[in-house]
Amino acid sequence: MGIFRNSRVIRFLLGGGVAALLNLVLISVLIEYLGFDTPWLRNVANVIAIEISLLFSFVIYRIWVWPGGGWSLRSLLLRQLPLYHMAAGLAVLLRSLVLFPLLDYLGVSYGVNTLAGVLLSASLNYMISDRLVFSSRESHRADLYPPEGLSPAVELTGSNHALQKAIQGEALTLSVLIPAYNEESCIESTLRAICDCLEDHAIDYEVLVVNDNSRDNTEIILKRLSLENSRIRYINNYYPNGFGFAVRCGLENFAGDAVTIVMADASDPPECIVEYYEKLKEGFDCAFGSRFVRGGKVYDYPAHKLVINRLANLFVQVLFGLKYNDTTNAFKAYRREVIEGISPLIAHHFNLTVEMPLKAVIRGYSSAVVPIRWYNRKTGISKLKIREMGSRYLFIVLYLFLEKLLSQGDYVKKDSFAMVYARRS
Questions:
Q1: Positive or negative torsion for Cα 365, 422, 280, 162
Q2: pLDDT of 387 higher than 60
Q3: In degrees rounded to 5, what are phi and psi of residue 209?
Q4: What is the pLDDT of residue 233?
Q5: Cβ–Cβ under 8 Å, residues 285 and 359
Q6: What residues pair up with 232 in beta bridges, in sequence order?
Q7: Residues contacting 409, CB < 8 A, separation 6+
Q8: How far is CA 286 from CA 335, 353, 373, in A?
Q9: Spatial distance between the Cα atoms of 261 and 175, rounded to a whole number of angstroms
Q10: Nearest CA-CA partner of 334 in 276, 268, 285
Q11: Number of helices (H) and strands (E), helices first, in the chain?
């Protein structure tokens, strides 16, 4: 029973459950026993029940979940209660007007859709309550961070274990892992650009391409390039076809001290690989990029995919309480010990791009975030099918949310680190 006494999240969920039960009882009493039984009166009963249950949950949270603050009438009426109503209203609007229609469009079942909506609403309500409603003005301001995508990335100050433990100039061998399926039109130019860039920066590297059972001339090109350049090697995916399977195959076979996952279509600039490498040399376990902070940029991003991308990343941010706003992008770098620490990986498809960074964060590995650029492919066909991936992404997100919520730190590193953001110079 220790988790119920010590976990603020569990107390928050229990308090919300009690308030929801009270809401059901109140509306039943008003309609069945007090005669609120016309269409107009039923709406009135609904409003009354919601307001009373909101006030009831506010008191529960104020006493049980976030105890210890002041009870001044001015603070309650002018700040805490209005902010609490705003949090609840925003959660309902986001769930009803954004999440539900989006998941419905992606073909997610109504049951899973409803569960996702409940989790999103509860997470958003918790974050706003924790950071704004039940914190004093003095205590919460220093902890708030600028909304990413609207403000520049921020560099955290103060002590940081990762930076303190960094070994300046530490030599690393970097493996560049590239999954490739029917990429004959661009794979050669992509590989040559990466090799030229890494050699210009005197980085010890290998390029490992996983041929995902391509049906065009991709393997022929890879065989020729591997003979020309000993740093390039390729293997054929021995798992079933799929992006996630191809990446997992590569992660089982890379030879370097660290690995970065790069797309075969040249959407990820080689210069950003160098920035990742420098962050790993500083001592960070992971290097994440964001296309949606100052210094980051996307070129020719399809509008509908951009909207879905930002909503999906917002959902992940809210659910996990992250500052990082580009979780779904595959282009990231990890030290070898991180790959070992987040294994086994279970995603089969593009949802692996979410599983890897979220597991790394949940399990306490340090990470640096740098602004990156992204270019839409000029040749070939995108392999990501949004309608097919909606439920798969949601599955991975909910699976990892349960690990974060219920594992009680069983998989977390003892010396977990903060996430640091760096500006592009």
A1: negative
A2: no
A3: -105, 130
A4: 97
A5: no
A6: 207
A7: none
A8: 6, 14, 18
A9: 9
A10: 285
A11: 17, 10
Share of the chain above pLDDT 90, in %: 43
Q: How far is CA 150 from the centre of its chain?
A: 18
Name the one residue in this structure whose structure tokens are 């659910």. 319
pTM above 0.90, yes or no: no
> 57 vs 290, which has greater pLDDT?
290
Tokens of 372: 């990156």
Range with the poorest average pLDDT among 24-28, 280-284, 365-369? 24-28
| Tens digit of each residue's pLDDT (9 = 90 or more) over 212-245 | 999 999 999 999 999 999 999 999 999 999 999 9
User: CA nearest 177: which of 279, 249, 239, 269?
Assistant: 249
Mean confidence (pLDDT) of the chain: 82
CA torsion through residues 274, 278, 284, 285, sign:
positive
DSSP bridge partners of 261? 177
CA distance readout (Å), 54 to 59, 73, 356: 9, 18, 37
- Tally Cβ neighbours within 10 Å of residue 375: 16
Q: Exposed, middle or buried by CB within 10 Å (0-12, 13-18, 19+), for 10?
A: middle
- Homologous superfamily, domain 164-301+319-385: Spore Coat Polysaccharide Biosynthesis Protein SpsA; Chain A (3.90.550.10)
Contacts of 125 (CB under 8 A, 6+ apart): 16, 87, 88, 91
The residue extents of the domains of the chain are 164-301+319-385
Are the C-beta atoms of residues 332 and 260 closer than 8 Å to each other? Answer: yes
Q: Which helix (H) or strand (E) holds 53?
A: helix 39-60
Residues 324/317, Cβ–Cβ less than 8 Å: yes
> Between residues 117 and 368, which one has the greater pLDDT?
368
* Element holding 19 (H helix, E strand): helix 8-32
SS3 for 67? coil
Interval 154-184: pLDDT, tens:
333 333 444 444 444 567 999 999 999 999 9
